[in-house]
Specification:
Blueprint (H helix, E strand, L loop, with lengths): L15 H21 L4 H21 L4 H34 L6 H17 L17 H16 L23 H17 L5 H20 L8 H20 L8
Amino acid sequence: MIPRQGPLAPYALPPSHIIDQETERGRMAARLFFEDWMDCHHEFNELLHMLYQNILIGWEDMGFPREESFRLLVESTKRAMAFEISAQELCDVVIERMVQRHGWTLGDCISALSGVAGRRLAISGNSGSFTYFYGSDLPENLDQIVHVMTQEAVRHGVPAGSNWRFGLPANDLPVNAPVSLIREMEPRCLRFFRTIQMTHPFDQAVACAKAAGRMIAVASGGELPEIEPAIAKPLAMSAITETYKHVCLDFDMVSY
């Protein structure tokens, strides 16, 4: 059976940060199951087929056509793969181009990717609550993107902890976004997103946040990290939150 053709309704899929979260949960479960079946890959394959079949049949019992189920499965898989590819490729771009050719530090890379994530979120349609900063609490949509970044960093070996917001600027200080770094990095990100046909700014924000989390792990991983985790984590948090405020408060920032 061929998946349903034609345009996809805007809210047919879960939000992008949920797709990424569920994808990572599935990868974690797959690794755990796969360890028990190292001697027989077919058993693991049979488990996946059983899950797919039961889910699709269950949807059919609820009146959901099978061609629509297949379309959602295809689109969700494409979105999940796009986020993973983006995280890897954007990290490669920032290291090969900006570090090796332009002399950036890894701290610059973290700030740039985090800042682009905050900027793409701020100009997306998911920014209806951009003015609501209460103390250390973040707006819900920004908190969702920050969660993508922090979880990606933790999955790649950055120590989990509560020091992500340590040393962040107080609300009564002027907004201080890494504008120059963003202006260097954002056009490269957008060219890549056009290549993989990732057009929505919220999807782009999730992809950049995932790349920023992976870059935090690159900079602060290992026994002798180039940047201590206690420094790298607040650096990323500061860049993403300050850029979000910068754009939402209508500062003069170039649009590409």
